[in-house]
Predict the structure.
Amino acid sequence: MAERPAEDPRLAEKKGVRILLIDDVPSARKVVRKLLGFLGFENVVEAASGAEALSLSQADSFELIVSDFHLSDMGADGLITKIRESESMGTVPVLIVTGDTAAKVYHSVSGEENVLYMWKPFGVKDLQDKLVAALSPEVLD
């Protein structure tokens, strides 16, 4: 595994946030979860489909969603739309991870607030930088 990046002070108080990690590929979920843990984020709930993620998001609250773009049962664009309908999850930051660099991926949710992208493959420093952007209010404002 890559060398641990220097601690970012903007994340120091964010380590306890609840993260919903969504990917239909178990090995991909495992890698992202391991990277999150490497950065000190251990409060991660996994979903293997969009439907499971919606069910979890209705039953619980999360401060961040990390989702693959192409899920077996829906795209992240449809998932974000449905999650945004929830009063408690309407403004939660979403980090989309994808290996698809096609413009359609970006344009399908480009008008959404609090949506960031990270293209695969990525390393621990890349993830740390995106977490800072997603979880730091001064970055999102």
Observations:
- The longest helix spans residues 26-38.
- The domain at 14-136 is CATH 3.40.50.2300 (Rossmann fold).
